[in-house]
Amino acid sequence: MTKPDDSRHGHHMHWGSASPERLALMRRVIDEIAGYIESKELVDLGSGDGSITKILAEHCKRVYAVDNDRELLQLLSDNCKGIENIVPTLSETERIALGSGTVDAVFSSSSFHDMPSGYENEIARVLRVGGFAIVFDWNESRTAHGPPSEIRLSKDAVTKKFVAAGFSIIKEKDYETHYLLVFRKSKA
Q1: Is residue 5 part of a domain?
Q2: Neighbouring C-beta atoms of residue 49, cutoff 10 Å
Q3: Exposed e or buried b for every residue in 135-144, given b needs 16+ CB within 10 A?
Q4: To the nearest whole number, what is the mean pLDDT of the chain?
Q5: Domain residues for 145?
Q6: Residue 103: its pLDDT value, please?
Q7: Residue 44 in contact with residue 107, Cβ under 8 Å?
Q8: In the chain, how many H helices and how many E strands?
Q9: Which of 30-44, 99-113, 134-148 shows the lowest per-residue confidence on average (mean pLDDT)?
Q10: What's the rounded Cα separation, in Å, for the pair 96 and 100?
Q11: Does pLDDT of 162 surpass 60?
């Protein structure tokens, strides 16, 4: 899920060691969503090297670190050694390798724009009713880092997708280069 299609993304990459600035931003974001994930079972979509997964694990009962890249999951396992509530989970790009209605929250950090069309329905499938889909992604303005602006999804576009998939929006917040959206799954 985190490996970009080079034809679409050029040199845009999601993985690698996160910069201190990126980790500081992610700590702020995770503090912002702590009430939705505290002591819950969560999917970290496109978990990459585990830098952000570690921060999530401080709050969650269990974190399923979901990625479609076996090498990245091995790197995550090495980076998160000894953190027992992180479960590396190899998944196909189109499907999360978990049963229906099995988790309380799904977190996507700067990767929802890379997911296949209709992926909000896959997120809905793995969430329990009342569960949360949390999307932290790049806003549309051009930035020095991140994906090309033509593949970024606006806050409104993401909101429409999740509402159509049976979610209600319960929180939104803008950051300098990103936005945060929190949705609640309102029906089975």
Answers
A1: no
A2: 23
A3: bbbbbeeeee
A4: 88
A5: 17-185
A6: 98
A7: yes
A8: 6, 7
A9: 134-148
A10: 10
A11: yes
CATH number at residue 138: 3.40.50.150
Cα torsion at 66, 60, 27, 3 (round to 10°)?
A: 0
Report d(CA 25, CA 179) in Å as an integer.
Answer: 12
Torsion of CA 74, 124, 60, 22, to 10 degrees: 60
| pLDDT higher than 60, residue 87 | yes
Pairwise CA distance, residues 152 & 149, whole Å: 5
CB 148 within 8 A of CB 9: yes
Q: Would 11 be classed as within a structural domain? A: no
Quote the number of domains for the chain: 1
Give the 3-state DSSP-derived string for 30-76, with helices as H, strands as E and coil as C: HHHHHHHHCCCEEEEECCCCCHHHHHHHCCCCEEEEEECCHHHHHHH
pLDDT at 90 over 80: yes
Q: What is the pTM of this model?
A: 0.89
Position 93 in a domain: yes
- Domain contains 122: yes
How many whole angstroms separate alpha carbon 7 and alpha carbon 132?
A: 32
